[in-house]
Amino acid sequence: MDKSTSYPIVGIGFSAGGIEALLTFLTHLPKPTGASFVIISQLSIDDKSLLDKMLKRCTHLHISWINNGIIPKPERSYLLPPGQQLDFKDQAFLLKPFLSQQKITRMIDRGFTALAYAFQRRAIGIVLSGTGKDGLLGVKAIEKQGGIVFVQHPETALFQSMPASIIADNHPDMVATPEELAEILPRML
User: Fold this and answer.
1) How far apart (Å, rounded) are the C-alpha atoms in residues 123 and 8?
2) Alpha helices in 39-102 (DSSP H)
């Protein structure tokens, strides 16, 4: 039985100020999309249930936390649990815990790079509000594999440095507001 996916896998990365952008994006996402979504937060989220409850109120997508061995399905959104690194084995989720001495950084780069190598041209990266340059290496990996990159316009982001760094060091396929990205995405799948 072929377990490979044939639909797009959309990684959404954010940090500071990104929850608001994520909620706006999901609220405006038309249905059906035909895609699977993987949400990677650079934020420290201590209460796992808080984020999934917020998202369930604003989207038609089924929301769940990532578990090992699950292959992403369309019309679903998967949340990366706190303290875990995202990877894939045969296109199924493979979580790797951070060791206690590791600094949890570059979560978006790690997650987007894993998406790029697992799903190649079907990988799509969306970078929303945040600080720093996390995501830059990940979107380059997605583009190298033939995928698509979207970025929130920095003027609409609460924290501009993360989306601005992608725009300055890369040439994303689309730069727009979260609402516009949600409306444009299904047309590009």
Assistant:
1) 6
2) 48-56
